[in-house]
Amino acid sequence: MRQVGSWVGRVGTGFVRACVVAVVGMLIPAVWAAAVALGIRWGPGNPWSWLAPLVLVCVGTPVLARPVCRTVRRVVADWTGTVIPDGYRRAGPVTRMSTGYWWNGFGYERTSRDALLDQKWRVRWGDPANWRDLRFTAVVPFTAGLVACLPPAGVAAAVVGLLQPGLAPRLTGVLGAVLAVGCAPYAWRPLEPVAVRFLRPSPAMALADRVDELTAQRADATVAQAAEIRRIERDLHDGAQARLVGLGLSLATAEKLLASDPEQARTLMREARAGAAASLAELRELVQGISPPVLTERGLVDAVRALALDVPLDVGVDADDGLRLDPPVEAALYFGVCELLTNTVRHAHASRAHVRLHHDGVGIVVEVEDDGRGGAGARDGGGLAGLRRRIAVFDGTVEITSPAGGPTRVRMAVPCESS
Amino acid sequence: MRIVVAEDLYLLRDGMVRLIEACGHEVVATAATGPETLDVLRTWRPDVSVIDVRMPPTQSDEGLRAALAARREMPGLPVLVLSQHVEQLYARELLADGAGAVGYLLKESVFDADQFIGALERVAGGGTAMDPAVIAKLLSAGSAGRGLDRLTERERSVLALMAEGLSNQAVGRRLFLSESAISKYTTSMFGKLGIGDDDDGNRRVLAVLAYLNATSG
User: Fold this and answer.
1) Are A297 and B107 in contact (CB < 8 Å)?
2) Where does the HTH luxR-type domain lie (chain B) (predicted)?
3) All structural domains of chain A
4) CA–CA gap between residue A122 and residue A413 (Å, rounded)
5) What is the pLDDT along chain B (217 residues), one digit of tens a residue?
6) Which residue, among A270, A304, A309, would best test binding to B if mutated, counting the most B CBs under 10 Å from its CB?
7) Residues 6+ apart with CB under 8 A from B42
8) Residue A322 exposed, middle or buried by CB count within 10 Å (0-12, 13-18, 19+)
9) Which residues of A30-51 are buried (b: 16+ CB within 10 A; e: fewer)?
């Protein structure tokens, strides 16, 4: 009984879906058919009778292609869970140049309104994805559309046939009904493979997207690196270098005074020694910020263990043994953990945290948890965004779950080999 | 004392040798790499050795590993490890065997010749010489609920100086207190921490370090 119920349900759903596919797939052929019908109605006598149908076809097809494709993507995603990336061009930001003109990614315009209009037009009609959409609308009627038409066609045959007297039409009607019921659960299914095959971004588009992504990452990385180098230069210039100059001065003076005033010379020597110690302390801080020595000496796992010891929290560390990665990845992850633990100390009011590092076959996964009050994403804008950027350079991901009230859980994953 | 110096940078090695010899001790051998260090320690069995953490061939923690390996072979071999940075992790590894006669200091501790030689002598005598920064971190790392919070401020500062390896006398000088006052503090402190108080200074310091090591992190 229940099986019958579920089967009836599948037939019903399948029939509705087949009708939807038939309507969507046959929309553009219907426009063409309408154009042909229009031409026939105006008759061959009129020398201009081809004009209106031609306009209808030439305008209707490209205008309808994108909505049809969007609808197909949506129903495929809803019905089967297969998400097909659309690969359409996105409008970039419109920026004002120092010349006063507006740059919209394609050209310069005098006003921002012109720039936006021009950009909208170009993004919509200069997109190579339009050709792919057109190809799809040409393919669909002869494949998925045709199959999807079977159940409604069967129903139509049944209605027409059973209403007419005579054995042959009735037999046809019964056959139509059997056909409609039999293929209803399956008739919409060809849409998925066809859509996956013809609607996904072409390799060229995927490549273009990837290039955009990499360009953005490179820009981020170079900006971050330049800022870092400037910081190091400033610190060295104002700190250690200045101190060393002072040191040399003290020593030179002491040398001069050695014969005449040994007591004064001794004082200067002592000062020089204190200065040397101070500049070493400064350099130590600086080096820690550039690349912590323990990371160079021991690798990521021990560096995280050392970090855990220094944090004024109870931090547990679990790690796969013998995990060695490329130094740049290790550095990024180390500073990531550093950032997260600092946040935990500063904002989370946590009493303990836990760090897990393991290799899941695809890449390295680092999870940092604390038992604090949560709400991390909202609380900390800059730091976590910077962390994402730093990890993104290696195609890594950062997932943050931090409900109000805690606990906060951050998972960093970077695809890489463990040597 | 017969001393071994292991340091890869010629300038520093030479400077250290000169400083040690100027203070009237003998440098019997020097080493510039990790494996070399281990060989020299085996050959000479010095009264104390000064070892740099980062050395060739790998430029990782070769020196520290050589020191740990040497102490595994010859328990209680006195080593003083020097580094540009102090890491709690390394301090714990050095203290782990509980044999004492270890030091772990920043390189600039050589600036003060008297203190440096003092540290060398302490380590050679089976004591310890720990960098104040390490001790401060050992004391602070989540110290709540581990008995340390029962100590008074004064007792904590005595504990920190003692953990660095100073004698009661030296602690007293630093805190401007008499030696007898210091022993009063230590007695009450050990009572609170549940450490047996005996007269041997080194064993006492080791007990403190072991305590800190076991209960933090």
Assistant:
1) no
2) 144-214
3) 1-85+128-201 (no CATH), 89-126 (no CATH), 206-288 (1.20.5), 293-415 (3.30.565.10)
4) 38
5) 999 999 998 888 988 998 899 888 999 999 999 999 999 999 999 999 999 999 989 888 999 999 999 999 999 899 999 998 888 889 888 888 888 899 999 988 888 888 899 999 999 998 889 998 888 887 776 544 466 777 888 888 888 888 888 888 889 998 998 988 888 888 888 777 777 665 566 667 777 777 776 655 4
6) A309
7) B70, B73, B74
8) exposed
9) ebeeebeeebeeeeeeeeeeee
Whether A294 and B89 lie within 8 Å, measured CB to CB: yes
| Bridge partners for A411 per DSSP | A367, A399
Cα A210 to chain centroid, rounded: 10
**Residue A126 and residue A236: Cα distance in Å, rounded?**
51
Domains of chain B in sequence order: 2-133 (3.40.50.2300), 148-216 (1.10.10.10)
The number of C-alpha atoms within 13 Å of A330 and in the hemisphere containing its C-beta is 23
Pairing outcome for strands A352-359 and A314-319: parallel
CA B193 vs CA A118, B186, B210: distances in Å: 78, 10, 12
B contacts of A312 (beta carbons < 8 Å)? 140-142
Residue A115 in tokens: 């720039």
Give the position of tokens 């509980």.
Answer: B98
Among residues A38, A5, A4, A29, the alpha carbon closest in space to that of A149 is found at: A29
Answer whether B140 sits within 8 Å of A280, measured CB to CB.
no
pTM for the model = 0.68
How many angstroms separate the CA atoms of A397 and A382, rounded? 17
DSSP code string of A277-311 = HHHHHHHHHHHHHH--HHHHHH-HHHHHHHHHHHS
Alpha-carbon A406 to chain mean position: 26
Rounded to a whole number of angstroms, the distance between the first and last alpha carbons of chain B is 37
